[in-house]
Every structure is written in C-alpha cells, then in structure tokens.
Amino acid sequence: MTSTAKVISSVIDGQETGPGGGEYLSRNPSRLDDVVATVTLGGPSTLADAARSAKRAQREWAAVPPPVRGRVIASFGRLVEANKQTLAELVTREIGKPLAEALGEVQEIIDTADFFLGEGRRLYGQTVPSEMPDKQLFTFRVPVGVAAVITAGNFPVAVPSWYLVPALLCGNAVVWKPAEYASASARALAELAWRAGVPAGVLNLVYADGENTFAGLEQALTEGTVHKIGFTGSSAVGVKVGELAGRHLQSACLELGGKNPMVIAPDADLDLAVEGALFSGFGTAGQRCTSLGSIIAHVDVHDEFVRRLTTAVENAVVGDPRQDVLYGPMLDQKFADNYERLLGWVADHHTVLGSTATGRITDAAPRTGFVGDHSAGLFYHPVLLDGVRPDDQVFLEETFGPLVGVTTYRTFDEALELADRPGYGLSASVYTTDPATAFRFRAGIGAGMVSVNNSTSGAEAHLPFGGNGRSGNGSRQSGIWVLDQFTRWQSLNWDFSGKLQKAQMDVATIEPDLDFRL
Hints:
There is one protein chain. By secondary structure, this protein is an alpha/beta fold. The protein has 15 helices and 20 strands. The chain has helices spanning 46-63, 66-82, 84-95, 99-117, 158-169, 183-195, 210-223, 235-247, 270-282, 302-315, 333-342, 393-396, 412-420, 435-444, 483-486; strands at residues 6-9, 11-12, 15-16, 23-28, 31-40, 127-129, 135-143, 146-150, 173-177, 203-205, 228-232, 253-255, 260-264, 292-298, 351-353, 383-386, 403-409, 427-431, 449-452, 487-495. It starts with 5 loop residues before the first strand and ends in a 23-residue tail after the last strand. Belongs to the aldehyde dehydrogenase family. This is NAD-dependent aldehyde dehydrogenase. Its EC number is 1.2.1.3.
C-alpha cells in the first residue's frame, strides 16, 4: 500500500525554496512502495544562498547571551523528548532502522541537549597573569561564524544533533545538508529546533545532491560565507571535503568511515564476546561507521568462538524493523547496490557462515526465521566470513553492510598489527579478563575510541567521538571537546599602566647567583 508522501524542499531564512536540482523520492526501504517524502532538490546555488542568509543572521544570534542560547537548547531537548516516539517511528519508516534503535537514537539527541544546555554557562576562558605590572591577560571563546554541516543518513537525527547543538549554542549559524534518503527525518528535527526558538535564518536546511552540494560549498567558501565545515560520510568524500576546506585555509570536522576491529583474547568471556560481535557487526545491517568489520581471534579460541557466533547469527531475527529484529533493510537502494558489489570480494579461501544464502533475501534465497515480507524491501542475508587473510580486500576496506570477517592471531603484537593494518582508526574493541591486556591494547591501538568487553558501536554524549587515519582528521564531536570545532580562541591584553610596555623587552628581571655552590 502506497502512502501519501509529504512534499518538502529546502528552507532558507524560514522560507521554502523552489526547484533547481530535480526531485528525489525518499522511500521506506522495508516497503519500497511507501514514499515517505517527495524532496525538491536545490541547485548549485542553493547552499551558497543559505550561507549568505546564515551570515546575515549570525551576528545577532551571537549577541544573545550564551546562557540564553543554552535555554533554547534546553527547550529543543524537551521538544524532542515530547516527540520521541513520533520521531523514532519516522526514522524507522524512512531508513529502516529497528524501532528500538531509533528510540535510542532520539534519546541521544535528548542527552546531547541535556549536556550542552549547561555549557551556555560554561564557555570558559581564562584570566592569565602578565609579565608586566598593571596589565591583565584574558582568553575568550568566540563563534566561528557560519558552519556548513553535511550529514549521512544512517543516524539521521542523532549525528546531526552532535553538530547542530554545540554549533548553535556557541553562537554560530548553520547551513545543514542532510542525506537525501533521510530528508523527512531531517525536516522533522529542524522543525523542532525552530519551534524551540532557533531563529529561521540561524538554521537553514538544504536539500541537494552531492555534486550540487559540493559546488555550492565551494562558492560559499569563495564568498567567505562559510567558516567551518562539518562532514559525516565516507572516507572517499571526506578527502575531497578536506581538500576543499584546506584550499580556503579551513580545517573541516571530518567523521568518516571505519574498519573497526574486535580482538578476542584467549582468556575472553566468549559468550559476552559473541553478544558484542552480533550487535556491533550486524545491528543496523552493519551500516554504522562504528560497525564491527573484522574479528581477530586468538588461535586457541578461534574455532569455539566462531562456532558460537555462527549459531547466534543463524538464530538472529532479521526483517520488519517495526518488530523485534536484530536488523532491517539496507538504508537505500544505493547502499544495497554497493553491498552486492562488495560481496564479489568473497573468495574461494573464505568460509561463508551465518545464513542460508548470501545477497538479497528472496523466494529463491530465503532466510530462515525472517519476519515480515522480504519481497517488499531491501533485505539482505548476514554474512560471517571465516578464513579472511590480512591482504584480502574484505579485510582492508569498509563493507558497510551485514558482513563480518574473521581472522586469527598468535601474539599480542600481531593482534595490534592486524587491528591497525587497514589504516582506519575510528573504534576498536578487545575482549579479555586480564587488565594488563586491556591497558596494553588501549596504549597500542590507533583508534580514537576503544572498548574493553563491549562492542565497537555505542557512544555517550559526554565522551569525545571521532577517529584518526582514514576515519577522520583528529577532530572530535560530543562532550566539551567539540567546542573546539565551533569556537575560536581570542586573547585580550589590557594594559592600565598608562604607558607603553613592550612584551619581552620591558620585563623586570631578578638576577640569580648561578655560581653559588653548597
């Protein structure tokens, strides 16, 4: 049954804009005949127009006292909380994320707002002593100006809040370009922000494809109307965004892909490790940047661990995301197409485990225990791939789908080398009952986030989130650390001596007797 789709378009300075870049149908990936929204896409000038609007509005927003901006963030959190169920159901309908996960995603927005409402009273600077008499030194956090935020759709409302909440709190204006396939969820979140008191021109919503987004961003940077870029997406596109920012002497906040390892030590609690691997490898159909990519199991426990994990994957419930399932469909047709291409990396030396087939779930290739109508959506078999080698493409590259590879190690140093080999550095996990192994793993791994006896997925609003290497440029979101992305440090020196005092030149000195000996 086809549902009536909402027609939405970009919103600049509170006004919906006209067409310029075609039309996009945001479909429910678990029921492809259900069009959630008909999206009017902007052209190459849409983002640049939004940035000009944002620049005009930003100065007045920055003049609002930070504690008052904090109250706006508080109101935003309360509105999200009041609409939690509705927003989560929209997320489930638009991207196919199981409702339990969608509710957790919306809760993350609430947690983020709860954390940052107090930062409006804690945008601390410092009073610093001067080397001169009758002189005081100060430091202040000031807004960067206009932030262009470009987000993926696998976390269509939580991850955007990691950008929007601190950026707005710090006095910036925002141009937000969400993923097209999550357009309706993005519009709902923006509506809640506007109703909470964020001025229309301070938060602008742009719908555009990748090519027009890049062209508009380049134009805005040239015009000097964008002062910070926040990007969540693939590593390949992140490289291009980072290069563009660098040409304009900016450092983008990049949250990119991951090939996240999980090391299973010989003393690990295997049942606990299986639980963590199942959730982080196959939750959201493996379509998280923090999804488990490779299991690196000690040779002494490999066979038993794989046996237990195989059973867990085979018994996992897949299907209709409105029901109690481990995962639902692929997010969008383009991800399904890409995942089918990556299944070509499965080689003769691999052992395929975990389901009754590989690829799309169909009448000819059914999944035991599937819930719902597999023919209605983009549903795929889980794949547990044993016998993966360190030079395999499936070991080195992000797969972004329900596929987890397994390899083995003998020494701890070998495990660390394998874990870092792909060159990503987002999240990593180790299962062990030995504290020494846990701390050595933390010290030796290159990931920005490390878990012990927990999955590679999962973030809390008051911890830094981000990666290194191919996973990002060292920038961090969440907690107090993200403030460095959306503020600039400004120093003030105030001389009230009534005369010119020259630093490093007019400094009084007290001479020691350095020749003295006991």
